[in-house]
Design brief:
The complex is a heterotrimer. By secondary structure, chain B is mostly helical. Chain B has 13 helices and 2 strands. Chain B has a two-stranded antiparallel sheet. In chain B, helix 5 packs across helix 8. In chain C, the strands form 5 sheets. In chain C, strands 11, 12, 13, 14, 15, 16 and 17 form a 7-stranded mixed β-sheet that branches. A 4-stranded mixed β-sheet of chain C has the order 1-10-9-8, with no helix packed on it. A 4-stranded antiparallel β-sheet of chain C has the order 4-5-7-6, with helices on one face. Classes of the chains: A mainly alpha, B mainly alpha, C alpha+beta.
Chain lengths: ~325, ~325, ~550
Amino acid sequence: MTTTVTPASPAAATLPRQRGPVAQFWYRLRRKKLAMISLVVIAVIYGGGITAPVVAPYTYNEQNLENALQPMSSEHWFGTDRLGRDMFSRTLYSARTTLVVSVAVLVSGSLIIGNGLGLLAGYRGGWVDNAVMRVGEVLSALPGLPMLILVNAALGPRVLEFVQWAQQGTPLAGVARDFASYMTVFMALSLFFWVGTARLIRSQVLQLRERDFVTAARALGGSTSHILWKHLLPNIAFLVVLQISGTLGGVAGSEIALTWFGVGVQPPTPSFGAMIYEGSGARNFQTHPHLLLVPGLTVSALLFAFVLLGDAINDVIRDR
Amino acid sequence: MTGYVIRRLAILPFTLFVVSFFTFAIARFGPGDPITVTAGQIRDREVLARIRAERGLDGTIAEQYIRWVGRAVQGDLGESYIQRGYSVRELIVPKMMVSAQLNILAIFFVFAIGVPMGLIAAWFNGKWLDPFIISALLFFSAIPVLVVIPPLQWLLAVQFKILPVGGWDGLIDIVWIAGVIAIPVPDPHLYLPLLVMTIPGFAGVARLVRITALQVASEDYVRTARAKGLKESTVALRHVLPNSLLPLITVIGLSLADILSGAYFTETLLGIPGIGSFTFESVRSRDYDVILATTLIVAFFFIVMNLITDLAYARIDPRVRLGARIDS
Amino acid sequence: MSGQKRIFAILLGVLATLVLIVGGLSTVLLLSGGAQGGDGGSSTGGSPRRVDSSPAGGRLRLPGTDPITLDPAVAGDAGSADFIVEIFSGLMTISPKLEIVPDLAESYQVSDDGKVYTFKIRENAVFHDGRAVEATDVKCSIERAAARETASPTAPVYLNDIVGALDKMNGRAQEIRGIEVVDRKTVKFTIDAPKPYFLAKLTYTTAMVVDCKQAQANPRNWTRNPNATGPYKLSEWRVGERMVLVANPRFYLGSPKVQQVLYQFSGGSTLTRFENNELDVAGISINDIDKVRDQNNPLSKLYVTGSDFSISYIAFNTTLPPFDDMNVRRAFGMALDRRKITDVTFNRMLSAATGITPPQIPGFTATDKSLKFDPEGARRALAASKYAGKMPAVTMTEIGGGAEAGLDTQAYLESWRTVLGVTVQVKQSDAASFFADLDGQKLQMFNAAWIMDYPDPEDILDLKFHSKSTLNDIAYSNPQVDALLERARVERDPVARLKMYQDVEKLIVDDAAWLPLYFSQNHSVVNSSVKGWFQRPMVIPRLRFLSVER
């Protein structure tokens, strides 16, 4: 944007100009209370996931049938489930699962592919645009969730078989199997997650490329990549950042949905989807509300933190 | 423009072809088929093979696909492998109707309430009310339906008993007053699903409206228009409104495109006989032709709605040249 | 800045109209709906518009799920049979006391060699449309079930004893020569050996009578409006929503008392709907069981429970390592404290299995024949096996409808890990994948259940454990078991025969081919206005014994 919308904050004047854009960005973001709270929430949940093996008081699978369905207590902070497993430990390990899948989808390309193709399609137009949009159209025309489930139900066992075959006798056994359990989930997610991003970016570029400053740059003989990088990308940066928080949240949500349905992360790997499934049902909620509330509130907090963070980042970038 | 529409429509059959093949192949690639599901615990391999042949599930995937295409182009979407004797069409259509009714209502409320919310937030930009509205709405949008439905059911149906716990009984109920006056009221089964389907939607719409309205209002041409001394109402209606609508149109178009695809978890958890819960069932039982037909119909509708969205887009923002190459 | 605000103000004004319309309308609608909801449970309940047409003889509202098919010849699942046994009927049936009694048949005679059965059809037996049921209808119905075009998965199991049935199924014969029409109302069956359980098999839906003309005229859709002989007629079926059955006034044992039965297929938690008076019967889930057991809760007065002819078990494929070694199988069995796991994870809603044949099946004994919980013994058995110290990877497969492995499964896994030090992976698959792998005998070990189709131990022991049986999915083969099973097939002394099955059961449990886990029980609440209700261990006709008094 060429102009600011909100009144320039008084802090803007004292902004240390000599710092790089990242420092500036961070400086501004730090001033947003909600963003900081969100970051803390995300850090706590993801941090809990990363450090789960150290922090968790029990392992995720440690059963104690005498102690089933205990409410919250000093011994079991979040209570225990039907098998007497510590809900707090299971929550931590589920956060770990969410973290692994989210980051994997992000890295495995939904962002890179989505943004890259969106930019390219919008800017180049013509057959590139056509090709990208047609592929995207096919993918997005498919009903998302059932397709994800179908892909997982169909490919999951095949991938698992393949992994089991490939690891016969190798020391990787356990690791590879867990990995396989995540792999189909994020492969399937990546396949569908880039389209929305690409389309949004493209429609913005479609507008922007008609703007004066791009026309001017082109008239001055700027190369495609130059124009993309220098003129278009900064202008859609807020969308990209928005998409990162959106994607992270979306992936976390989808993983839960898939696992709830039974085709996502396979047991005994703990996951929020599985925990929520166990706590489902109005009757179940009436008798043992903590089964649903513990994973439900954690997930909601995570997703909420992501959208708030996304919003704040968006504001910061636009204020530039 | 006409040329563009014709070209897009010409691609449609091709897209549908790719969609159908993809779905067909994926569904059959996985282990298991509908015959194994329906056979129950009595399962003789030879018998199952014979039933497969009888029901057209023998041969390679390619052969089966060619047979399917042959029937599909004549408008025959096949027969359910699970619900014997029922054509796919008669199973799907009533369920799509249920889902469509729910979806249209939900979309209506999402926009009718979400858009003003966004404008109010934009109005109070810089005050506490702006972030408050947006974050409150965002909070509701962040809770997954899987988490929110059980407590709602418990509260409204079990504890206070004011709503049925789930199910579906059409849109309208007639209440008779003194046996003479008939008053149509919404069916009580509607409230819970609508609640769950609308509230999370507000945030997205409100946030989008807020951002674009703020953005558009500070654009050069708006300022120029205002500087020219045009009336504020003219500026608002002629310049701000159409331009703020631009991104909104995509969102409306995309939500309308999903009308036929059902709210999967809401329908499943609330026991609503819509296409969403039915799709889950079909995927689970590998009812190939049902999955395929649902996918194709949803895809067709989606593509057409997308095209309409694009056209509306071009109509409102003349700067968008559809299909034209920029550097030619 | 103020200019900007004015712009928004105007936009808001434009939209305010919309909001007013929408808000006003929806408020009015919500209020009127809320008021209606507040009127009391009855108006919210079910479908108010249709309640007032309640028929004189009473109306029963039941929960349910769609049957897969209403064609008795192809139905292979209890869910479909549930409806079929009320709409159709056959020569023989099973009474509420679980006796095998004549149904369409008035009487029957068995020849001295036990191979020829002669049935006399009731004089007053008619189809729903009034046409009399004749011997030719019986013959034609069973031949239709066995015909190739029908593609019945059940016919090869239930009809194979009849002489010539296999030829018909293989397409080598036009008719089944073992079924003879003696006269208009008499039909004679010849079977290949004196099998005492033949009558029990005839009670299954595969042998029920259909209107062949109707089925031939419209092979795809005749079950939408089947002309049959049972106590109820199909009146309406909206897939995924509801089914309505109405009493058949011409039923040969007298018109049923309940005039209309409404099955509701959608709507969520059945107990909540029961409490809201939308249903007359509701199943009890594990979340509600404590509530109905509580003597102070009014629901406890309506609570009924009974056992099912069903057993859950863990099966080992006896040809795949490590379960080709009996010691490993026994170790796995002894490592489980089944009683405790069952009690905790299912909140005492099931009973730990004492053997393979479920309670109420002839030959059942209450003494526990299964492997005792014995961690020391389990470790010893494992140490004695040829896989001691070099245990291959073990995966247990089960059908998973949801995200988590069954709670009991997770408890078993944990027991094996702690007691034996063996980490068993669990693989959840949907029914389609599971059965595909099961049929391929690819599953190393799996968690499954068997539901008895008729009350005879042959239905489980012979079908699942005879080495030649097509349903023996674990490749179990024990010559001693085979020999006993074959003798029991033709043993005509009931006591001696049951003794053989008990011996077989003992052999199988000791071989640890299966680890019997638990026998299912059903738990329901039934409205006090429903009279004559009984919990049944298997699908048998029930509706015609009921009445509703409101």
